[in-house]
């Protein structure tokens, strides 16, 4: 198919833009392909299910025309390129007004049950978690801010007390996830007949070009931590929880499995030149690994196979994510023992006093899953300090390559001298730290490449190889 005349129907362009999936039967989860010239649908089964992990059904226009050669596609007519729309921003005062209501915010209360009040206050401040009561009282807002700190969108999600996403039954009897967007909730609020409030001017402007996931959740933290390696997961909840267990990464979320994509590089533009470790949910490892290779021009990507390696068959069938694993254990099990507990900053002024938590009971302890021999993102290592003298001596006596070095099939070093210097500095400061293991391996890998023994003595053992 030479002419790309079909696209998935955009969400919210009218009533009934989401349909029943022909594969899993879930209502209002199936996006159909439409002709961008005529707005007409293709066949009923041509589209993609939004339940990417549990279903994953996708039938493309190409598949349809290859299976139905008698159905000739009309050639696309010439179209003038649409003018580039300016990005929309949510009013900062409105964002600040939602920095409250945490006693009823079920996600905040869940964080308190995991980490305690002080750390939760820090997470609220750092990731700027808000509260939305327009449709689902106590729902959390995950503000999606760009690297310049501008609020581009706000995802609304209501959680149960166990940390799982809530659901509701629609008028057709279908089960729907309590997930939405701030601008849609406000549009619903101001559109009701009983509403007497005037729609704010900023919302009118924003609705002219609303965007869902225009950038990464947590992207504003890249400027706060310019030297930290980056970790990307699917969901904001996972990023927030993992940031406490493994604080040496800047944890970001892309929103969904399909949002880590080569089709919209602007969404990932802020991580250009950074060292990025991907932590896909189960069933997404192969897809993300392939895309990481295609996006290697953007950043130094590595795809963790931690979940693929450690999950049971039942967990794989259920689509376990990193947060599902981490919350099984006290977060202190993941914290490096040699590092002192960081001093907690003062709580945000708009944050109500958090309730006092009861001590961890013996009965709860008995029901807690047994801690595995090694909990972490990487394989077990000896606890003695790493001897870096050999590496330092080698790189001090070996001139760095003048040009790029292909470290892995999916990652290249563009500035070897800077790469060596930054990695040695990081290793000296974080010796024996589990999060520093990739830095150690990358230097060992580079050393073996320069020695000509990369594929004999130093295969990649901690990070998955796509070769």
Any overview of this molecule?
This protein has 467 residues and is α+β, with helices and mostly antiparallel strands. It is 29% helix and 14% strand. The chain has 16 helices and 16 strands. The strands form 5 sheets. It has a 4-stranded antiparallel beta sheet with strand order 1-2-3-4. The protein has a 4-stranded antiparallel beta sheet with strand order 5-6-7-10. Helix 3 crosses helix 4 and helix 15 (416-429) crosses helix 16 (437-451). It starts with 5 loop residues before the first strand and ends in a 16-residue tail after the last helix. Residues 337-383 and 455-467 have low confidence and may be disordered.
């Amino acid at each position: 198919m030479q002419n790309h005349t079909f696209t998935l129907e955009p969400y919210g362009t009218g009533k009934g833009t989401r349909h029943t999936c022909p594969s899993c039967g879930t209502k209002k989860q199936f996006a159909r392909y439409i002709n961008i010239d005529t707005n007409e649908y293709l066949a009923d089964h041509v589209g993609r299910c939004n339940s990417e992990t549990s279903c994953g059904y996708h039938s493309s226009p190409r598949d349809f025309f290859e299976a139905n050669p008698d159905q000739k596609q009309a050639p696309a007519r010439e179209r003038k390129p649409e003018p580039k729309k300016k990005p929309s921003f949510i009013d900062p005062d409105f964002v600040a007004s939602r920095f409250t209501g945490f006693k009823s915010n079920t996600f905040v209360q869940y964080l308190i049950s995991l980490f305690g009040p002080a750390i939760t206050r820090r997470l609220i401040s750092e990731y700027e978690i808000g509260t939305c009561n327009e449709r689902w009282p106590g729902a959390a807002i995950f503000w999606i801010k760009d690297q310049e700190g501008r609020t581009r969108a706000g995802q609304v999600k209501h959680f149960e007390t166990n940390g799982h996403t809530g659901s509701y039954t629609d008028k057709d009897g279908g089960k729907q996830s309590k997930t939405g967007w701030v601008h849609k909730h406000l549009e619903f609020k101001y559109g009701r007949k009983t509403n007497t409030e005037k729609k704010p001017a900023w919302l009118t402007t924003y609705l002219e070009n609303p965007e869902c996931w225009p950038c990464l959740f947590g992207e504003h933290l890249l400027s706060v931590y310019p030297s930290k390696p980056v970790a990307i997961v699917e969901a904001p909840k996972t990023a927030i929880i993992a940031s406490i267990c493994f604080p040496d990464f800047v944890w970001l979320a892309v929103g969904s499995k399909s949002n880590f994509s080569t089709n919209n590089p602007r969404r990932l533009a802020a991580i250009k030149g950074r060292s990025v470790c991907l932590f896909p949910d189960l069933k997404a490892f192969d897809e993300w690994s392939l895309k990481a290779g295609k996006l290697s021009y953007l950043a130094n990507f590595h795809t963790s196979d931690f979940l693929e390696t450690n999950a049971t068959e039942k967990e794989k069938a259920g689509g376990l994510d990193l947060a599902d694993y981490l919350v099984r254990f006290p977060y202190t099990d993941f914290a490096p023992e040699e590092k002192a507990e960081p001093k907690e900053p003062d709580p945000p002024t708009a944050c109500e006093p958090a309730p006092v938590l009861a001590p961890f009971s013996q009965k709860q302890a008995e029901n807690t899953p047994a801690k595995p021999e090694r909990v972490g993102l990487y394989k077990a290592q000896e606890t003695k300090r790493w001897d870096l003298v050999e590496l330092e001596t080698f790189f001090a006596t070996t001139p760095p390559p003048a040009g790029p070095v292909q470290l892995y099939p999916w990652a290249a070093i563009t500035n070897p001298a800077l790469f060596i210097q930054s990695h040695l500095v990081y290793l000296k400061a974080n010796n024996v730290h589990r999060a520093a293991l990739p830095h150690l391996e990358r230097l060992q890998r580079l050393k073996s490449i320069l020695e000509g023994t990369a594929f004999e003595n130093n295969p990649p053992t901690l990070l998955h190889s796509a070769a």
